[in-house]
Amino acid sequence: MAQNQPHILIVGGAYAGLSTLNSLITLSSGAALPTGPVSPPPPPEPFVSARGLRNKPRYTLLDERDGFYHTVGAPLGQITPSYAKEFWLSYDDIVADTYANEDVKFVHGSASSLDLEKKIIEYKTADSTVGHISYDYMVVATGMRRGAPIVPLEFDKQSFLSTVDKMSAELTRTRKVVIVGGGAVGIELAAKVKMEYPNNEVILVHSRETLINAEPLPQEYKAKALELLLITGTHVKLSQRVLKEEQIQTVDGARIQVTLSGGETIICDKVIYSAVQKGANTEFLAQGGRDEIGCIQVRDTLQFPALAPNADFHFAAGDAVSWSGVKRSGGAQNMGRICAANIVTLLRAAEDGNSNPELEICPPFQPTMSLAIGEQAMGLRGGEIRFGKEVMERAFGRGLGIEGTLKKLRLTPVAELESRRTQEKSKGAGAGVVAAHI
């Protein structure tokens, strides 16, 4: 380790966190950030490369899960075992592969408190062991506190895969499924259940008059989402709340009776709640500088509020940030790039004795969204709504965007990593056989 080597802590290893880490490594070497189809959508002004840092940082990634999870693909990954395995990539594998030649360390734990003045974070592991990490710069990329089926409740891959296996087995047996919540996840999940398990009648129940009502989207977009969902064969009940859910016995065995606010009852085999967002995952931060759902009220440089202790050394990116527009993985990745650019600028300025460096500004995000609804997708960009199978291929591709996501984040697919390990074991076994005959 170099003397006075800067230490950068990234809390949260999803889209924003890994984008931050990748960008820090690139910019600190003096290279420009990539643009094009394998990079996040570029910000309004491209990042210009400058000289690399003389003293390269070391990095620590802290996350409560043991791997990166492709949240965009959750409606598919939560119900399909083959995709579930593909969507969760071990951080140990990521560090050993993507960051093999970098000074990167992964810590598996959940942030519990933060001392901004001392620049020390406290975290707890799964067995309640308490640890501390000191740092020079920190980026909070912890996202929103959501529950299943938006994100897994499990913190390790094997437990998650067991849960998905159980869900898949249930959906194979069931005949009628009720999805509660008509946000983006509820819509995509209902359509995927109908596609992957066509034996089921699928009913989406939503409490408002329109789908995706919580997002700042045109009414035409919301209406088109309903139209495409109905095409999949999903039944939709709007302006209805679930008042009660109870187990009952029927001639067909144990089932579930769901009572709606309009008086209707639905007899089904499974109920899945998709409207489970619980606010930003920032409980470890002090109350000041956060909005009503816990999102961090950063400056336009993505630094903490100016009145916070050591504010210039603390950044935030992704869904945990209080910002305009719709919370999306593309926006999260762009925020990570801006955080990285500004941290490298500050480190370079310190090396050069520049007390007033110019930092990048994060622009307001315009309402943008892509939805995968059955075999079709729809998108809103620049105020224009597009939909169809070609939009699905362009916006998502296979596996709700897993291949494009891995390329953008410079991650190796799970299948390729497993193939490498198998080949290495075969070579090792072969070498052992040869040695035995010498």
Secondary structure elements and their pairing?
Elements: E1 7-11, H1 15-28, E2 58-63, E3 67-69, H2 74-77, H3 81-87, E4 88-90, H4 91-97, E5 104-108, E6 110-115, E7 120-124, E8 130-134, E9 137-140, H5 157-173, E10 176-180, H6 184-196, E11 201-205, H7 219-231, E12 235-237, E13 242-250, E14 253-260, E15 265-268, E16 270-273, E17 314-316, H8 329-352, E18 369-373, E19 376-381, E20 384-388, H9 389-395, H10 402-408, H11 414-436
Parallel strand pairs: 1-2, 1-9, 2-5, 9-17, 10-11, 10-16, 11-12
Antiparallel strand pairs: 3-4, 6-7, 7-8, 13-14, 14-15, 18-19, 19-20
Protein name: FAD/NAD(P)-binding domain-containing protein
Organism: Tothia fuscella
GO molecular function, one term: electron-transferring-flavoprotein dehydrogenase activity
Question: Can you put this structure into words, describing what you see?
Answer:
With 438 residues, this protein is α/β, with parallel strands linked by helices. It contains eleven helices and 20 strands. Strands 5-2-1-9-17 form a five-stranded parallel β-sheet, with helices on one face. A four-stranded parallel β-sheet has the order 12-11-10-16, with helices on one face. A hairpin with a 5-residue loop joins strand 7 (120-124) and strand 8 (130-134). The longest helix has 24 residues, at 329-352.
